[in-house]
Amino acid sequence: MDQHKPQGGESLADRASEASSLVRPRPRVSERARSHQRAEHFRRRAEEILSLATFDAIVGSHPSMQDLLKRVAYVAATRATVLIQGESGTGKELIAAALHQNSKRRERPYVRLNCASLAESVLESELFGHEKGAFTGATMRREGRFKQADGGTLLLDEISEIPASIQVKLLRFLQEREFERVGGNESLRVDVRVLAAANRDLKALVREGRFREDLYYRLAVVRLDVPPLRARPCDIIPLAQQFLKQAAQENEVEVTGFTRAAERALMNYAWPGNVRELQNAVEHAVILAESELVDEPQLPLQTPETNSQWQLMIPGVTLAELERYAITETLRAVSGSPAKAAKLLGVSRRTIQYRMREYGLSAGTRGGALESVDHDDDDDD
Predict the structure, then answer these.
(1) Dihedral angle at the C-alpha atoms of 114, 249, 381, 276, nearest 10 degrees?
(2) Fewer beta carbons within 10 angstroms: which end of the chain, N or C?
(3) What is the mean pLDDT of residues 176-181?
(4) Range of 130-134, 275-279, 324-328 with top mean pLDDT
(5) Share above pLDDT 70 across residues of the chain, in percent, rounded to a whole number
(6) Torsion over CA: 91, 95, 96, 100 (sign)
């Protein structure tokens, strides 16, 4: 009798083959189960993240905004550097604040710096600090924004405006997490999460050679695009109602809502200045309201019939004429405020003040109208 052949006529090889055929499908079933478990884990984690996230200051029911806020909730819990892009006035600062408030750094400093409003030498000192005697007027050591934000978050607004020399130093910090004060030799290390905001297309600036490509990719580990107001019309009235309530409380007037005509005007307007322009328009209307409801005539909205922009012949006008038109009409819309006009146009307030002097304009005293002047006027809001 063959000692390797058990009773019943089956060999060990036969039985092994049969056992193997029974076992083989099991890993596939087990892998499907594990895949399902992983998917369920990520689904529950996503639900938990979204349930814990808070966006009290942000109004946005449009799908594009809901998708953006979902991404904010996911990204907030990480250490990733984030680039926030969008047109001027879309609310990039609110998105940056939401990233900080929903992160583990929420109890640590949240520091902001507008990079477009400072000269190159001042910007470097603001970012990295300086040593005593580093330059004329540096009578003592000063800590920069990176040091101030240690352990927290630093928002660099209008990042597209930083000069090439600062781009190099910012890139070094993002790569090595260390820097030196202006005029100093000591390398300092800080734990700072960097958020950057821009109203210009940084990738286009990279193609034009005006922004470092390596810095772009360091900043845009995650990129969040904030949609313009015209792309989410369902949010216009809820935002307007929120701004109306705020303006009524701040100005102590009893204005409670909009007429239907006013709501139609709000919905039909293109809002080139986005949410910031909407807020300004609503506050303007609340102050001028003649009853508890804001009516269409109180809204400072330009229409094809009243806005000379629609008669500009292109081609046929120079860039200088277009610039003058844009600045003049924006100043008119914001009651002559250089600061508000600068925000809407995405330039520095100094630029607006310089152009006002060049054009011979100053903020008027009657209803915010602009007046021509024959002398320099540094009237500032």
Answers:
(1) 50
(2) N
(3) 90
(4) 275-279
(5) 77
(6) positive
